[in-house]
Amino acid sequence: MTNRLKLLLASGLLVCLSAAADPIQLPAGMAGVPNIGAIPCHVFTEMLDKGPKGVRLSLLTWAEGYFFARSGETLNEMIETATNTDEAYDFYGITDRFVEFCAANPEAITREAVLAFGGELTTEN
């Protein structure tokens, strides 16, 4: 490797390292990982349009963990025991319920949207 190429590579590496060293400014209390179950519904609704991507999936994943921690059943097991089999319990069928709840209750938190859906499942038994 020639000295010129080595100098060019070293310069490029220095530029990359200096760019990565800029501090990240996190919102107060977030510590880098927002609690998707504690986000106000009006913020959740805004996030659907403005990003980040995957907000629906994040809340659905959070809901799965929440329900399992509370009941010992997976979301699929809860759906299997629900008697209303005409409902669409696919990704959008479930997450649309979260979206609709939050649109109707902007001052609530996303956890309440998840609990409302869980209530639908348990009251159908």
Strand content: under 5%
Number of domains: 1
Average of the residue pLDDT scores: 79
Q: Which blocks of ≥5 consecutive residues have pLDDT under 50? A: 17-21
Q: Helical amount among residues, as a percent range? A: 55-70%
Categorize the overall geometry: extended
The CATH architecture can be given as Orthogonal Bundle
Task: Give a description of the structure.
This protein is mostly helical. It has one domain: Orthogonal Bundle (10k-s Protein, Hypothetical Protein A, Chain A), CATH 1.10.890.30. It has helices at residues 3-20, 41-50, 55-71, 75-81, 91-104, 110-123. Helix 2 (41-50) crosses helix 5 (91-104) and helix 5 packs across helix 6 (110-123). The longest helix is centred in the first third of the chain and has 18 residues, at 3-20. The protein is extended. The protein starts with a helix and ends with a helix.
Name the features.
single chain; 10k-s Protein, Hypothetical Protein A, Chain A; mainly alpha; 125 residues; extended
Entry summary:
This protein is an all-alpha fold.
Draw up the topology in text.
Elements: H1 3-20, H2 41-50, H3 55-71, H4 75-81, H5 91-104, H6 110-123
Helix pairs in contact: 2-5, 3-5, 3-6, 5-6
